[in-house]
Amino acid sequence: MESTKIGSFVAREPRTGSRTRDVIAANFGTFFEWFDLLVYAMFAITISRLFFPQGDPQSALLLSLMTFASSFLIRPVGAVVLGIMADKVGRRATLSFAAMLMLAGTILIAISPTYDAIGVWAPVILVTGRLLQGFSVGGEFGTANSYLTEQSASRKAFFASLQFSASGLAVLAASLFAYFSNHFLSQDQIYAWGWRLPFLFGCLIGPVGLYIRSRIEETADFEQVKREGATVHNPLAETFRSHKRFVLIGAVVAAAGVVASFLNLYMPTFAINNLGLTKDDAFIASICSGVVCTLVPMLGGITADRLGTVKVMRTALVLGVILVFPLFQLLTRSPSLLTLAVFQCTLSVVFYSFYFSPIGSLLSQLFPTSCRTTGVSMAYVIAQTFFGGITPLVVGFMVKATGSVMAPAYYIVIIAVFALIGLYASRKHVT
């Protein structure tokens, strides 16, 4: 098989059957990353009452949320360790290892006895499960992104966008779990066993993903670097020595997508707490958003491959900034299922599908194959750590401090300005 260089990517003949299997395998972890994140958040109050002492309910909830946050704190460690592993050992082996860690963490959470059964060991097991998941997730995006973008030199954005479609499918699945749990289970049933269902779901199909990942092929890009002996170098040292500027640029560009995505996920809670919408309305709007986030990112990736990654992302970001204030005004002045669905679906199309989904292509082009996963993982996890999990906290604080429900719109605009600067700085290095 002849290979020619296109930038820092290897062009090769398409492999229809095996490539389909490889792409599905690469996206398994992405699905579980977001599915687990969402279902834990949705059942945070339930988990707080089951796993932490009940002398002070507010303290129990705080401890539950701190457990949720612990997975974000360990993500940078996972990004570095698994990123180095992917650049030295290979994308295939790292994807399988990350899947094992994710499955182990999910099993611990699904089967853990509660505080009433084993006392202090219950939160210890819960935190251990979250830490394993967080470590796995830290390196999951960068490894899967390198694996996907290295599938085709000319369709990097499309293959990168598939991770975002997988995330959208996770939003849809988690929203359906929440909707049907709220509708068909009593509170006693949820506390007794209902909260375990989504985690058991992960335990059931997790081994399928692990099996598929163990059978995928290594990418041609990594194999070429391995033949050239570049894998003996230190990817972390190479990233900091020669590419730290691109880590910062990538993190700033990714931040706008991260903020918009987490704000969109937070909007149902925002609408319930601040606008008086019902839980059913919030869950149905999230289901609509999940459908959009599953289907449209692939269109964003195809468009970026044809018109240029930076051009498409810049256009989507500017359009999003223009639309965000009218959308907030529409929702806050006329709160309803329809306006919430319009708000979430519009953000899903503009910010998520056409701005955020091509980010994998942009990040992969900022780093050479020898340290690509390390650089991509660090840039993405920096954005997730500093602008992801804290977005609901920042938004809630801004609303309380200003007394205005329009405050989240200003937060998006501020981050978007810095992202536009990052896009401008990356334009000479990204097609």
Q: Can you count the helices?
A: 20
Over the alpha carbons, how many angstroms does the gyration radius reach? 21 Å
| Structural class designation | mainly alpha
Question: Which range best describes the helical content: under 10%, 10-25%, 25-40%, 40-55%, 55-70% or over 70%?
Answer: over 70%
Low-confidence stretches: 1-7
Measured distance between first and last alpha carbons: 25 Å
Strand order of the largest sheet: 1-2
**DSSP strand tally:** 2
Shape: globular
How do the helices and strands follow one another from N- to C-terminus?
EEHHHHHHHHHHHHHHHHHHHH
For the sheet with most strands, the description reads: 2 strands, antiparallel
Share in β-strands: under 5%
Residue-averaged pLDDT, rounded?
85
Overall description:
The protein is mainly alpha-helical. The chain is 81% helix and 1% strand. The protein has 20 helices and two strands. The protein has helices at residues 16-42, 44-51, 57-88, 91-111, 115-118, 121-149, 156-184, 187-192, 197-213, 220-227, 235-242, 244-275, 279-295, 297-307, 309-333, 337-356, 359-365, 372-387, 391-402, 407-426; strands at residues 4-6, 9-11. Strands 1-2 form a two-stranded antiparallel ribbon. β1 (4-6) and β2 (9-11) form a beta hairpin. The radius of gyration is 21 Å and the shape is globular. The two termini are 25 Å apart.
